[in-house]
Amino acid sequence: MKQLIEAIVKPIVDYPENVKVEKEESINRIVYKLSVHPEDMGKVIGKQGRVAKAIRTIVYSAAGSHQKKKTYVDILD
After folding, report:
1. For the chain, what is the domain count?
2. Are 35 and 20 in contact (CB under 8 A)?
């Protein structure tokens, strides 16, 4: 999932070297924390959150078939 998130986000940002994805796993859920350069925040979120929602939709559908835990994607400031 980490590679999937990076593959989606890196082409749309101006600073791909600053894209970082961290994984936190607990008993019943997995949280992927995405951080990008402050200037790229608007590109990752998109107008009215459309890009962020699309990223989450792709990751959730891919994770649903591979993992039995609930998966979340957080975009950090």
Report:
1. 1
2. yes
pLDDT of 66 higher than 80:
no
Global pTM value: 0.88
d(CA 7, CA 20): 11
Q: Which residue has the higher pLDDT, 77 or 75?
A: 75
Closest CA to 18 of 45, 47, 41: 41
Range of the domain at 6: 2-75
5 closest CA partner among 69, 71, 50: 71
Place of tokens 């979340």: 72
Q: Which residue has the tokens 């990752």?
A: 44
Ranges of beta strands (E only) in the chain are 20-25, 29-35, 70-75
- Taken in order 41, 44, 45, 46, the sign of the CA dihedral is positive
CATH number of the domain bearing residue 66: 3.30.300.20
